[in-house]
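Tokens as discussed.
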């Protein structure tokens, strides 16, 4: 599913409000930009009945290049993880 698909669904689900697909796409962009901004600033994003986007700090570690087998140093970094809510898990699991 793409952003455009989400915007199309929004436009169809609110016919009385008459959202155009273009307006719906702008709304989707605003929501995603808000999530990205919060994560960039170090905040976790919690969406009830959907799940949580969490920031995790990974420590520096020694690794290896799988192609050459040569040892390499992997620097510390922040990563985003997603933890689905129980409701979401049950919905998808069915």
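Sequence:
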């Amino acid at each position: 599913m793409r952003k455009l698909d989400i915007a199309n669904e929004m436009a169809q689900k609110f016919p009385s409000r008459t959202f155009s697909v273009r307006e719906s796409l702008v709304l989707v962009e605003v929501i995603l930009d808000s999530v990205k901004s919060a994560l960039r600033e170090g905040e976790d994003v919690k969406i009830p009945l959907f799940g949580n986007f969490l920031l995790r700090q990974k420590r520096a570690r020694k690794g290896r290049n799988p192609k050459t087998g040569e040892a390499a140093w992997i620097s510390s970094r922040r990563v985003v993880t997603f933890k689905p809510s129980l409701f979401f898990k049950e919905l998808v699991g069915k």
